[in-house]
Amino acid sequence: MHQYHVTSAETLEAIYGEASEASIVKELDHIDANYRALIEASPFLALATVGPTGLDCSPRGDPRGFVHVVDEKTLILPDRRGNNRIDSLRNLMANPQLAMLFLIPGMGETLRVNGRARISIDPVLLQRYAVDGKEPRTVLEVTVDTVFFQCARAVVRADLWNPAKYVDRSTLPSLGKILADASASRIDGETYDRELPNRVQSTLY
């Protein structure tokens, strides 16, 4: 009902009240030693970008520490092999702003980094971040604008790291079924599902 839509910052502030001091002082414009430790412990992040055609949020993952902290204002993120949609990179070409949400297995708190990125194909950087002799296609050079930790409430409510809450994959549609239905059976779902495990392992890098 439209009369219940919130349309002003003043109304939001009245609903939620003032932010606590801790939620304000934790935000820095650089990576200090504490935030560096969190980034270096993380094997996974969600990368958010925006461009002319809209928003994108996509996963990035590798062994922990895969995001290199060059200095207090600079991060390097190798862009590993994927599906070649390059939605995030297309957005960054038009708008360099990005946001990253780092997760650390077993830890409730997450880390948020906002900044601006350049896409690089510097041969020295590509070689530096090669894995098993396979270089990333590109690397993102990220200039940090703000960084702060997010409290654990969301992860605690989700019980995210509790193995007893893991979902039985067989209770959900397989990726092959999703593709077959979305493509009106142009893609053979059974073949896709059968070949997927080997394809993932053979194309990680």
TrEMBL record:
Lineage: superkingdom: Bacteria
Domain Pyridoxamine 5'-phosphate oxidase N-terminal, residue spans: 32-151
Pfam families per UniProt: PNPOx_N (PF01243)
SUPFAM superfamilies: FMN-binding split barrel
InterPro entries for this protein: Pyridox_Oxase_FMN-dep, Pyridox_Oxase_N, Split_barrel_FMN-bd
Name of this chain's protein: Pyridoxamine 5'-phosphate oxidase N-terminal domain-containing protein
Provenance organism: Pararobbsia alpina
